[in-house]
Amino acid sequence: MSPRVRPRPRVPDELPELPPHLRPAGRVLDARLHLLDRQILDVEDVPVTTLDDLHVSYADGDDDVTSGDRPAFVDQVLTGPVLVTRVFGGRPPASRLVRIPWSDVVDVGVAVRLGVRGEGLDATWVQRWLRDRVIGRIPGGRHDPE
Amino acid sequence: MKRLLGVALGVLTAIGGFLDIGDLVTNSVVGSRFGMTLTWAVVLGVIGICLFAQMAGRVTAVSGRATFEIIRERLGPRTAGANLVASFLINLLTLTAEIGGLALALQLASSVEPRLWVPVAAFAVWVVVWRAKFSVLENVTGLLGLTLLVFTFSVVLLDPDWAHLVHTAAAPQIPASEGAASYFYYAIALFGAAMTPYEVFFFSSGAVEEKWGPKDVSQSRLNVLIGFPLGALLSLSIAAGATLVFLPQQIEVSTLSQVVAPVAEAGGKVALAFVLVGIVAAVFGASLETTLSSGYTIAQFFGWSWGKFRRPSQAPGFHVVMILGLLVGAGVLMTDVDPIRVTEFSVVFSAIALPLTYLPILLVANDREYMGDQVNGRVLNGFALVFLVLIVVASVAAIPLMVATGAGA
């Protein structure tokens, strides 16, 4: 059983009854169209990562949402090795997922904006490592261009 | 003056795209073998790149999103990844050729063996990418590249039979000495060179570097409409010079020194000095454009921080990619490959990269979430669709023609 449900449209054999509020007054986000593969910016508009995948679970934290009998919620944005498995198939172990809690997201537009700084997030560790070990050590690396 | 410098991005993009080392030689080869009969391919190419670069610039100015972010968002990781690999390889091959071209141009000026110039050229490109502001880089290379207009003046000085030149350009016929396959191979090479994807990556990312907003859409249009036709004029001038000097004598151009020969014949040493400055500037500009594009595409695909308006330490992945690209390019050149042959292989990768680059731009330029009321009009969409078909045809035909003609031989 997959803990993550791909937001891919499935065509069931028999169409279920349509949900009662087909056109709610609020904004409807299609996970595939409006969320997946959008740029994520931090609170200072610095790029953090691309939204590589989403984690969906029930309100009680159970993330086996395949039964679909209760409303499920997007609770995490995923990045890191999950990109490789989205290209080549398969699923990384849960310990390898790099997560950003959905509670950090403040706005969804042509980019997904976070209300926190990207600096402290796990999602930017590769960049931090490259900065501290490589780029920051080359002369001029920490100065503004002239 | 500010307004004039405002088009520097377009001029640099176009000079880097139309007059990189491969194009300098290809245009000259085409002139010496086919005369002006392939003018239509350059004209089609410039119309196509104007359409799509303008669209990409407008999308970036209105939505703030650069082209490869859009490609990733619209095509998903798998298809966008295929485009990334193809585009990155085109970039790397072109970058390699440019550094080799810089070394060849410096050899023309100094008579020092080109392989000794390669590390110097690669290091110079890196220093500029590492330390110089974006505006300095585009203004200096853009303005110095304008000295290439000496190609156009030398065509006038050679006093050609204008009626004949225009006639061969307007009513093209495949020359009797050449086969149809080679003719169309070069047509695709010219069209593809005009539409190389790194131009839109660079142009749209440059719009972010220059902090264009929705108010700058007209600026973007001006850049495109001045820059790219200027690039086309220069490449046609090179072809015309070669047509006048080499075609009657049946000499086929194969070296950079032959490319500048028509200028030397028309204007003497002074013109030659100008053209060398222009070539070094244009090729240096193309090196910067391809180096930056390799960083832009990878960083935008993965969503990393990028841009020259940031300190290198604030865009570390972006700078690491560019350093590795330059090291690989310089390393390949040390094996003594012919830099000009290197670009010809990028045609193969264009087959994947061209349609997968221009389709998402067209889709997003019609998306109201991104563009608000600045979406494409119907006429623009009509033309864009026609060109998308042309792009697909060219990219499908490129590889068979390359094999059939032995890369145009």
UniProtKB/TrEMBL annotation, chain A:
Superkingdom classification of source: Bacteria
Protein name from the UniProt record: Uncharacterized protein
The species this protein was found in: Cellulomonas alba
From TrEMBL, chain B:
Entries under Pfam families matching the protein: Nramp (PF01566)
Keywords: Membrane, Transmembrane, Transmembrane helix, Transport
UniProt-annotated location(s): Membrane
Superkingdom, taxonomy of origin: Bacteria
Regions crossing the membrane: 40-61, 82-104, 116-132, 139-158, 183-203, 224-247, 267-288, 317-335, 347-367, 379-403
Keyword Cytoplasm part of the UniProt annotation: no
Membrane topology term: Multi-pass membrane protein
Classification via NCBIfam families: Nramp_1 (NF037982)
Protein name: Nramp family divalent metal transporter
Native source species: Cellulomonas alba
Source taxonomy: Bacteria, Bacillati, Actinomycetota, Actinomycetes, Micrococcales
